[in-house]
Structure formats: C-alpha cells, structure tokens
Amino acid sequence: METVFLFAAAFTVFCISALVVAPVLLRPDAEARRIFSVVETERTDHRSTTQKEQVEEAVLHLSRGMRERLGISLSSQLQKRLTLAGIRTSSAPDIFFAAQFLTPLVGAFLGSFIAGNTWFWIFAFAAAGYVAPNFWLTEKVRRRKERIRRSLPDTIDLLVICVDAGLGLDQALLRVCKELALSHPDIQDELMRVQLEQQAGRPRMEAWEHLAERVKLPEITAFVSMLNQTERFGTPIVRALSRFAADLRIKRKQHAEEAAARTKIKIVFPLVFCIFPCLFIVLLAPAVLTMTSSLSGFGK
What we know:
Elements: H1 2-25, H2 30-39, H3 51-70, H4 76-84, H5 92-111, H6 118-164, H7 169-179, H8 185-199, H9 204-215, H10 218-233, H11 237-266, H12 268-299
C-alpha cells in the first residue's frame, strides 16, 4: 500500500506540475502573437458554447500543442484509417493522438489501485490503454466495411432500376443517394463523395477508382472495373449492371451457405463443454447411484 500511495502522490504532483508549466510551454511565439493581434476583433461574440464543447476545445488545443512541441507529424496512414472508419473531421487526428496519450495514463492510474503485483498491473493497464484506441479504430473500420459490403447489392439493384428507367449514370447516382440516406448511410456517404468529386472536375472513372482505393473492398473494386470496361468498350450499362447484380446475389447466397456450414463446426465446442456434461449427469447419475447402492449392499 505504501508503494501505491507513493505512486498516486507522484502522479498527482506530475499533473499539478503539468498544469502549471503547460501555459508557459504552450504559449504562442512572437510571430503567432502578431498574427493574433492582426486578426483579433473587438466585436463581442454572442455565440453560446456548451461545457462539453469547451472541454473538447481545451483537449484539442493541448493535444495539438504537445504534438507540435514534440515534433510529431500527422501520419497519412492514420488519416486513411480515420477516413475508412467514416471519421473525416479536421480535429479527428488530434483527438486520436490525445486518446493515445491519455488512455495509458488512465490505465496506469487504475492499475495502481491493485494491491498484489502493483507495478505489473500498472504496466499492463498502461499497455492496454495504449493499444485500446488502435483496436477501437480497427474494429470501427471493419464494421463499416462490412456494412458497405452488405448494402452493395441493394445499391446496384437501385442503379439498375434507375438506369433502366432512362436516367444517366450520374443522375441515377444522385437518385440512389437520396434513397439510401436512411437505410444505408455509409455507402450513401461514399457515393456522394464520388458525385462531389465529379462536380469538382475530376473525371468520372478517376472518381470511381478513388472510391475503390478508399474503401478497399473486393466487391467495390470489381464494380469499378466493370464500369471501366463498360465505358471503354461501349457495353450497354443496363446489361452490365444487371449481370453484376446477379453475380452479387449469387455471391451473397454462397456466403450465407458458407456461414451456415461453418456453424456445424462452431457448435461442437458448446456441445462438448456445456451440453454433453449435463446430459451425462442426467443420464448416468441414477445408474451410478443404483450401482453404488447395490455394491454396498452386496458387500454387507
């Protein structure tokens, strides 16, 4: 307990020292102060900010200042992962960096309350806190990809209906985005980005290829390749979309059959470790008791 008390006291002193020294270390330099003096205004700000927004702004400011002081630049791989997870706000990398910095400290603080093997639990909880943000982001990316993969057949069916009704691919894409806003928001967001890139001047196929690189799903890659071949060779888009939708239905059926066949193997473990012991107890216990009583009577 003495070690725990010393660690808690040291942690408290560190936090107080950090709060005292942070305004000095994070103070803007002379050039930044000149810029602030130019852009500042005497007009009163009537906007109302909640306590949550103020705390988030303070954490972001502290995280951004620490990252700049330490010379840590934003990784392009981290930005791609955040984009794959559907997090595209400008403050997302700073929030993730703050989480990676704060969660190990919180884990170490919680581990210090365990009496036995205190230092082991401190390091274990700190390591778990450092890994937790990466694990959460990876799981969020995986779930979003799975939602996009499941919503792709319905999207292709809607595209087939719209194109078969006489709309062009771009107009059909806008119509499909409106229909998918509530049921499948993830793929609707990606399709809207394709449409916005086209409106900004990017060529159509380049925008679709950017979608395939951004989402990184085999189904999306195959769909973009089909569109590329259709535009290159002049194949009717309705026929190509119909055939691709039929292939997606077949793949979805095969995936369901594969998952159903896999359950036969997965159910073996609950049967062996949970159900069979109960059956053995119910079926064999009366026989064992009868044999025991018979043998005891035979001995007498």
